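Email to the structure team, subject: D-inositol 3-phosphate glycosyltransferase 1 model.

Hi all, the expression group asked for a predicted structure before they design truncation constructs. Nothing fancy, just the tokens so they can compare against earlier work. One-line instruction: predict D-inositol 3-phosphate glycosyltransferase 1, return tokens.
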Amino acid sequence: MAKDQITTIFRFHYFCCIIAVLSAFSFISIFFWCHFSSNCYSINQIMMQNPKEDIDLLTFPSAWNHLSFPSDPPPKLLKIALFVKKWPHKSHAGGLERHALTLHLALAKRGHELHIFTASSPNSSFPRYPISNLIFHLSKPTGAGYLEQAVVWKQFQTQNSTRIPFDVIHTESVGLLHTRAKNLTNLAVTWHGIAYETIHSDIIQELLRTPEEQQAYVLTERAKKVVEEVRFFPRYSHHVATSDHAGDVLKRIYMIPEERVHIILNGVDEEIFKPDFSQGNDFKGKFGISKSRSLILGMAGRLVKDKGHPLIFEALKQIFMENEKFRETVIVLVAGDGPWGARYRDLGANIFVLGPLEQAQLAKFYNAIDIFMNPTLRAQGLDHTLLEAILTGKPVIATRLASITGSVIVGPEMGYTFSPTVASLKKALYRVWNDGREVLEKKGKVARQRGLQLFTATKMAAAYERLFLCILKEEYCKYQNPFN
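Reply from the structure team: attached below.
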């Protein structure tokens, strides 16, 4: 009897997983249909529908990056609280931390008063900035590396009762837990990954699993996590999605009212990441890379499994074995740290594993390559490395995930996409190789043009500033239509 009950429970869990998986694929199919169908509106079409009316930002259906906010001094200087579990230090930072650094430095330079509640670094000194209105409130992290909620909440309440209260509160993902955030109407949360998107990643990794690897039973737990998120996400007052895809999921799957979901695409520092031919040559000279090489491929980020490195490793290994000319004329530069670094070195002398690079060195790295590769299996957020490469004027080749094709590589004129299989990736790499530098340079120019329109730190900070003003006062929620 007990065995039958266990079997029944397992089947029910398995059924729930199948339903979740089918809904994920169903949604993705609809999204792709919408994105490439003539039935969907471009941003200009949306804005031209009511040319005599102002736009209500709270119900604007696309990314705020498409809008042009004035670069004049802000109409009001804000007192902003930020909760982020970790602050970036040198080259050791994930996408969430880099987003927090880029955005809030830009807001501080705009004159806003930033109070950052974050964990102190146990192994190194905390970075210092020559900006008086950037104030850090440090606390010891929990054993799992998160913020100690009771401590940071007390710090927050102290600052909130000093002089003037905070105009707006911002949390990077669950830096501030929903149990504390539920009564804060002036709070916005930026999601850098949600469980619903992660299901797709889990499916991909299961499909790529070799017979020797143990099967991971994570889909049932992931489905439970989605249910948990759907329940507690509404406790946050305003939600920022970092990709068009994530914004649609929050509205349609997580059932958050559209006036509380705002799409603001990630941005990177356009003063650091920009084309510089001499920087690229210096970087290549430093590593003794010959000019006779016909193509230089680049990768950057954490060299771990869910970033797709087993996939790209196998694809390169097979190509090197079957095509001597490709192996002799192509160089691969790998920037980052992780277990796959040593394995890349085993592929041959034309693979250069550079280790983690700071931003200034990363800019030189992008200028040295002909195309940037991102084989990520994580269908979450919007990867900063793609945006850095694009702003440096490089085309990109990346996994065909909804967040990427919906916001970044929106057409073949910017780069290449592939399904997360070795065969598809190999086909894309051969297409890159056959196209050659001249075609890649043209794609890179188109990519940079789009990057300047959407993915700069200036664009991102202007959108967040306007959102924070809108949260503070309703009059800032109206955007004057430029077509009036």
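The CA atoms of residues 80 and 415 lie 38 Å apart. Residues 1-41 have pLDDT under 50 and may be disordered. Ping us if the truncation boundaries need rechecking.
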